[in-house]
Amino acid sequence: MAVRHRLIKADPATVWDVLADGDRYAEWVVGTGASRPKSGRWPEEDASLAYEIRLGPFRVGNETVVRQCRPGRGLELEILAGFLGTARFSIELRTWGEDCLVIVDEHPLQGAGAALHNLGVEALIQVRHRSMLARLARCCEDGEDGRRRASARQAAGGRGAGDA
To answer: CA 97, 152, 145: angle at the middle one, nearest 5?
Structure first.
């Protein structure tokens, strides 16, 4: 299983806002073209997004379905990748001081991806996750700094989403 983590300099509520916005999916998921709702209301369970993966001159239509949603804490997604099969993608948010520890876990479930899964594929997934988490961090840390939101929330006596 490809498990990776990153400390994002924003509170978990800010990170959740990005994850919960289906229109922003392509901003942080590597290789994904513009996303659009396919069914349901993202990120509610069974909601889905359709998008395109570009592999050089080739374009493949994919779909991601929410299998579990824990608002402010994480998502369990199933990636439907046509002939490549399906994969489980989990993203967990944990409060870490004023920041958010993001843990991702991905592994193939069915199809060619599952049949061909090996250490080489695992290494490629790790590289993809590193890039994806860097993109997610940029989405959360840019503009209205996530740390400002966390400080304001803490000054008001509230706790961020994802607190244990």
So the answer is: 75
146 and 10 Cβ atoms separated by less than 8 Å: yes
- pTM for the structure as a whole: 0.79
Segment 111-157, tens digit of pLDDT: 766 667 667 666 777 777 798 999 999 999 985 554 455 455 445 55
**Residue type (1 letter), 23:** D
Kindly give the interhelix angle for 146-155 and 12-19, rounded to the nearest 10 degrees.
130
Cα angle value 54/48/113 (rounded, 5°): 50
Sheet strands (E) in the chain: 2-8, 36-39, 48-55, 58-70, 74-80, 86-96, 99-110
Angle formed by the axes of helices 12-19 and 119-141, to 10°?
110
